[in-house]
TrEMBL record:
<keyword id="KW-0472">Membrane</keyword>
<keyword id="KW-1133">Transmembrane helix</keyword>
<keyword id="KW-0812">Transmembrane</keyword>
<feature type="transmembrane region" description="Helical">
    <location>
        <begin position="75"/>
        <end position="95"/>
    </location>
</feature>
<protein>
    <recommendedName>
        <fullName>DZANK-type domain-containing protein</fullName>
    </recommendedName>
</protein>
<feature type="transmembrane region" description="Helical">
    <location>
        <begin position="107"/>
        <end position="126"/>
    </location>
</feature>
Protein backbone atom coordinates (compact mmCIF):
# COMPACT_ATOMS: atom_id res chain seq x y z
CA UNK A 1 0.00 0.00 0.00
CA UNK A 2 1.13 3.55 -0.70
CA UNK A 3 0.60 6.33 1.82
CA UNK A 4 -0.33 9.81 0.63
CA UNK A 5 2.24 12.41 1.76
CA UNK A 6 -0.47 15.08 2.06
CA UNK A 7 -3.36 13.40 3.91
CA UNK A 8 -1.76 10.09 5.06
CA UNK A 9 -4.53 8.09 3.34
CA UNK A 10 -3.79 4.54 2.21
CA UNK A 11 -3.86 4.04 -1.56
CA UNK A 12 -3.44 1.04 -3.81
CA UNK A 13 0.01 0.07 -5.04
CA UNK A 14 -0.79 0.98 -8.66
CA UNK A 15 -2.23 4.43 -7.97
CA UNK A 16 -0.34 7.52 -9.13
CA UNK A 17 -2.49 9.98 -7.16
CA UNK A 18 -4.38 9.86 -3.88
CA UNK A 19 -8.01 8.81 -4.19
CA UNK A 20 -9.04 11.12 -1.35
CA UNK A 21 -7.19 14.40 -1.88
CA UNK A 22 -5.74 13.98 -5.40
CA UNK A 23 -2.11 14.53 -4.38
CA UNK A 24 0.52 12.99 -6.65
CA UNK A 25 2.03 9.87 -5.10
CA UNK A 26 5.02 9.59 -7.43
CA UNK A 27 5.95 7.17 -10.19
CA UNK A 28 4.54 3.67 -10.13
CA UNK A 29 6.59 1.88 -12.77
CA UNK A 30 9.52 0.13 -11.14
CA UNK A 31 10.17 -1.88 -14.29
CA UNK A 32 8.84 -2.13 -17.85
CA UNK A 33 7.64 -5.02 -19.98
CA UNK A 34 8.41 -5.87 -23.61
CA UNK A 35 6.53 -7.88 -26.21
CA UNK A 36 8.79 -10.63 -27.49
CA UNK A 37 6.91 -10.83 -30.80
CA UNK A 38 6.90 -7.19 -31.95
CA UNK A 39 9.26 -5.40 -29.53
CA UNK A 40 6.88 -2.76 -28.12
CA UNK A 41 7.60 -1.62 -24.56
CA UNK A 42 4.79 -1.31 -22.00
CA UNK A 43 4.41 -0.23 -18.37
CA UNK A 44 4.60 -2.91 -15.69
CA UNK A 45 0.82 -3.23 -15.31
CA UNK A 46 0.29 -4.37 -18.92
CA UNK A 47 -0.08 -8.11 -19.51
CA UNK A 48 -0.81 -8.47 -23.24
CA UNK A 49 0.56 -6.56 -26.23
CA UNK A 50 -1.99 -4.20 -27.80
CA UNK A 51 -0.43 -4.56 -31.25
CA UNK A 52 -0.02 -8.33 -31.72
CA UNK A 53 -1.67 -9.93 -28.66
CA UNK A 54 1.57 -11.55 -27.45
CA UNK A 55 2.50 -12.07 -23.82
CA UNK A 56 4.87 -9.57 -22.25
CA UNK A 57 8.16 -10.24 -20.48
CA UNK A 58 10.06 -8.06 -18.03
CA UNK A 59 12.23 -5.60 -19.96
CA UNK A 60 15.86 -5.01 -19.17
CA UNK A 61 17.93 -2.56 -21.22
CA UNK A 62 21.08 -4.69 -21.07
CA UNK A 63 19.38 -7.79 -22.52
CA UNK A 64 19.39 -8.30 -26.28
CA UNK A 65 15.84 -9.34 -27.21
CA UNK A 66 15.15 -11.19 -30.43
CA UNK A 67 11.73 -10.72 -31.92
CA UNK A 68 10.27 -11.18 -35.36
CA UNK A 69 7.55 -9.37 -37.28
CA UNK A 70 6.78 -12.46 -39.36
CA UNK A 71 5.23 -15.68 -38.19
CA UNK A 72 6.33 -18.48 -40.52
CA UNK A 73 3.97 -21.05 -39.01
CA UNK A 74 0.95 -19.02 -40.11
CA UNK A 75 2.38 -18.81 -43.62
CA UNK A 76 2.78 -22.59 -43.80
CA UNK A 77 -0.74 -23.16 -42.51
CA UNK A 78 -2.10 -21.06 -45.39
CA UNK A 79 -0.01 -23.04 -47.88
CA UNK A 80 -1.18 -26.39 -46.48
CA UNK A 81 -4.82 -25.28 -46.37
CA UNK A 82 -4.66 -24.64 -50.12
CA UNK A 83 -2.29 -27.52 -51.05
CA UNK A 84 -4.36 -30.41 -49.64
CA UNK A 85 -7.58 -29.43 -51.44
CA UNK A 86 -5.64 -29.07 -54.71
CA UNK A 87 -4.43 -32.64 -54.23
CA UNK A 88 -8.08 -33.60 -53.69
CA UNK A 89 -9.05 -31.94 -56.99
CA UNK A 90 -6.27 -33.82 -58.81
CA UNK A 91 -7.38 -37.12 -57.28
CA UNK A 92 -10.99 -36.31 -58.18
CA UNK A 93 -9.98 -35.81 -61.81
CA UNK A 94 -8.12 -39.15 -61.74
CA UNK A 95 -11.17 -40.93 -60.34
CA UNK A 96 -13.42 -39.35 -62.99
CA UNK A 97 -10.96 -40.51 -65.69
CA UNK A 98 -11.24 -44.05 -64.28
CA UNK A 99 -15.03 -43.82 -64.60
CA UNK A 100 -15.61 -43.61 -60.84
CA UNK A 101 -17.74 -40.50 -61.23
CA UNK A 102 -19.39 -40.38 -57.80
CA UNK A 103 -16.12 -40.52 -55.85
CA UNK A 104 -14.41 -38.10 -58.26
CA UNK A 105 -17.21 -35.53 -58.12
CA UNK A 106 -17.44 -35.65 -54.33
CA UNK A 107 -13.66 -35.19 -54.02
CA UNK A 108 -13.69 -32.20 -56.36
CA UNK A 109 -16.71 -30.56 -54.69
CA UNK A 110 -15.30 -31.12 -51.19
CA UNK A 111 -11.92 -29.70 -52.24
CA UNK A 112 -13.45 -26.59 -53.78
CA UNK A 113 -15.58 -25.98 -50.66
CA UNK A 114 -12.50 -26.37 -48.42
CA UNK A 115 -10.51 -23.92 -50.57
CA UNK A 116 -13.31 -21.35 -50.43
CA UNK A 117 -13.65 -21.73 -46.65
CA UNK A 118 -9.89 -21.41 -46.11
CA UNK A 119 -9.73 -18.29 -48.30
CA UNK A 120 -12.65 -16.75 -46.40
CA UNK A 121 -11.10 -17.52 -43.00
CA UNK A 122 -7.70 -16.21 -44.17
CA UNK A 123 -9.24 -12.94 -45.32
CA UNK A 124 -11.15 -12.67 -42.07
CA UNK A 125 -8.00 -13.11 -39.95
CA UNK A 126 -5.93 -10.80 -42.13
CA UNK A 127 -8.53 -8.03 -41.87
CA UNK A 128 -8.69 -8.40 -38.06
CA UNK A 129 -4.94 -8.57 -37.44
CA UNK A 130 -2.97 -5.29 -37.19
CA UNK A 131 0.31 -7.00 -38.21
CA UNK A 132 -0.62 -7.71 -41.81
Amino acid sequence: MRICPKCNELNGENRTECWKCGAILGPVDKYKKICLKCGRIYPQRAEICDECGGKLAVYSEDTNYKYSKTNNSVFWLYIVSILFPIIGIILGCIYIARREDNLGKSLIITSIVVILISIFISLLFVSCSPNF
